[in-house]
UniProtKB/TrEMBL annotation:
Alphabetical list of SUPFAM superfamilies matching this protein: alpha/beta-Hydrolases
Protein name: Alpha/beta hydrolase
Keyword flag Hydrolase: yes
Keywords: Hydrolase
Keyword Plastid found: no
GO molecular function: hydrolase activity
Domain AB hydrolase-1: 36-283
Database matches in Pfam families: Abhydrolase_6 (PF12697)
Length: 297
């Protein structure tokens, strides 16, 4: 088999690339925690986790998927009136999840998609969780690659500075390019109709300008040796956060002795948590998190 046709796994502890994916796919043992917290990303709601939540619950876990502040309503309501989303920032969102997690009776596995992945990094840096999985993660402060496909995906919001404190949505065409580029137009429209909501433009601006902001909310200590293990999962065909962005993000943690791993699923879009084959991604994420949480004191 051609290595390019296999999922790519990079174990940052050894700086080694493994083929096939089983290199980082340990069997699920006894979990250190029964609780999993799922964090959605921009232009999405907790509904985006519905399949993962059902699957993990069926495996015996307690699953929580709290909404960002202002997104506590159903998708259809948020589309009709997105005013509660406007102006919400990453600091407020991170604080919301931190308070939720600190209120639990046990430290959870924390998984996040897109900006939810950046939030996973922030929360782990604050000493939370027993393991973290950042899926198609938006970059934190210090990540340098800005691919053209990322700029094109974000330009509907960033292209107009007047959007900064507004809730701004994507058109079906823009969504198809940014999120669901490996799906047909019909499949993409179905995902759009079920999941898409206007997003806080402020969040996107904070992410985009982090490298020019001294005290950016997305600043984390990459040298932190005591944080929980962290896995980056990338989709090989992702437009808005291409694999090179996730790889660059993962490499920033090389000077830490804490576990940092990277795994790439070829041919998958930014909507990897919901497109066909999502079960493989979900099972891989859980197996890795359970296995590595046991190594985190």
């Amino acid at each position: 088999m051609n290595p390019d046709d296999r999922a790519e796994s990079m174990d940052m502890r050894r700086g080694t690339t493994f083929y096939p994916q089983e290199s980082l796919m340990p069997p699920i043992g006894k979990p250190k925690t029964g609780t999993i917290v799922l964090i959605h990303g921009l232009w999405m709601t907790p509904r985006s986790w519905e399949q993962w939540s059902d699957r993990y619950t069926a495996s015996g876990h307690r699953v929580l998927a709290p909404a960002w502040p202002g997104l506590e309503r159903e998708v259809e309501e948020l589309r009709r009136d997105p005013s509660s989303i406007a102006g919400v920032g990453l600091g407020e969102i991170a604080h919301h999840y931190e308070q939720t997690i600190r209120g639990l009776d046990e430290p959870p596995i924390i998984m996040g998609h897109s900006f939810g992945g950046a939030l996973v990094q922030i929360l782990l840096a604050r000493g939370l969780g027993v393991a973290g999985v950042a899926i198609d993660s938006a970059p934190v402060k210090g990540v340098l690659p800005v691919p053209l496909s990322t700029l094109r995906s974000a330009w509907p919001v960033l292209g107009n500075p007047a959007n900064k404190n507004k809730a701004v949505g994507l058109t079906p065409r823009q969504f198809h390019y940014a999120f669901t580029n490996t799906l047909s137009h019909e499949e993409s429209q179905a995902v759009y109709d079920r999941h898409h909501v206007p997003g806080s433009a402020r969040v996107l601006y904070q992410g985009a300008l982090a490298n020019f902001t001294p005290r950016a909310t997305t600043r984390v200590d990459f040298r932190n040796n005591s944080r929980a293990p962290l896995l980056f999962i990338a989709g090989g065909a992702d437009h808005i956060v291409p694999p090179k962005v996730n790889k660059a993000n993962a490499r920033l943690y090389r000077k830490s002795s804490a576990i940092t791993d990277y795994h790439e699923f070829p041919g998958r879009s930014h909507y990897t948590v919901g497109q066909d084959g999502w079960e493989e991604v979900a099972d891989f994420a859980l197996a890795w998190a359970v296995h590595n949480s046991q190594a985190h004191a």
